[in-house]
Specification:
This protein is an alpha/beta fold. It folds into two domains: 125 residues, 3-Layer(aba) Sandwich (Rossmann fold), CATH 3.40.50; 102 residues, Arc Repressor Mutant, subunit A. The protein is 43% helix and 20% strand. It contains nine helices and twelve strands. A hairpin with a 4-residue loop joins strand 7 and strand 8. Helix 1 packs across helix 5 and helix 6 crosses helix 8. The chain binds calcium ion (CA). Calcium ion binds next to loops.
């Protein structure tokens, strides 16, 4: 998927909820934040809309007729222009497993029904703030040691030399370069790349990291930049802090 060419978010939110009264309530409160709403009453319609357009925010009910909220959320993260759109999930039950399921499927936050309008507004504001920050962050040029990641141009150079990365390698590098020196766990990286981290993708991640190292490291067996923190994850070494 090419996020460069994805249409810009236009202050529109997607509300996915089969109960018309809740849909209206959410739409009303989104309008108070200056957003217009597109509404879907089932999961299939939601996925169709999410694949056709990019939204500033998605409010997604967990229990839906047709495709359920978790399935819709995973599909949005995996394959739509909304891979990075904040998703606020609505759950009818307060069970911990539902919240975990929602977050693991790629939602940013959840709200348990019934909710007060004050709480709804607060969550909407947090999600929108995150959205604005994500848009700004995607325009940055990141520099860590000899590595330079030009996000708007989708170009990576190491010591001035251009390297060609696959979209997933690029994504891994961006995530690490955004937080130089900090260890990102397999799960955090997986979530950033695929929206969720099914267990079988831990191996896939290692394969992509190995391929990335072959491109950015002089000696991939003894990486200077992309280092492994055994049993935890990966870190992009920030020469300024390690000396
Ligand atoms: Ca429902």
């Amino acid at each position: 998927m090419d996020r460069e060419r994805a249409p810009q978010s236009s202050g529109r939110a997607l509300i996915v909820e089969d109960e018309p009264r809740i849909r209206e309530l959410v739409a009303l409160h989104l309008s108070l934040e200056g957003l217009t709403s597109v509404e879907a009453g089932d999961g299939d319609e939601a996925l169709r809309l999410a694949r056709a357009d990019r939204f500033a925010l998605i409010v997604l009910d967990l229990m839906l007729p047709g495709l359920d909220g978790v399935t819709v959320c995973r599909a949005i993260r995996r394959d739509s222009p909304n891979a990075e759109t904040p998703i606020l999930m609505l759950t009818a039950r307060s069970e911990e497993s539902d919240k975990v399921l929602g977050l693991e499927s790629g939602a940013d936050d959840y709200l348990t029904k019934p909710f007060g309008t004050g709480e709804l507004m607060a969550r909407i504001r947090v999600a929108l703030r995150r959205s604005g920050q994500a848009d700004a962050a995607a325009e940055e040029v990141l520099e860590v040691g000899d590595i330079r990641v030009d996000q708007p141009r989708h170009e990576v150079t190491v010591a001035g030399k251009l390297v060609h990365l696959t979209p997933i390698e690029f994504k891994i590098l961006v995530e690490l370069a955004r937080q130089p020196g900090r260890v990102l766990t397999h799960r955090q990286l997986g979530r950033a790349i695929w929206g969720a981290m099914p267990t079988e993708q831990s191996h896939t991640l290692r394969v992509h990291v190995a391929a990335l190292r072959r491109k950015i490291e002089e000696d991939p067996a003894r990486p200077r930049w992309l280092v492994t923190e055994a049993g935890v994850g990966y870190r992009l070494r920030d020469e300024r802090s390690t000396g």
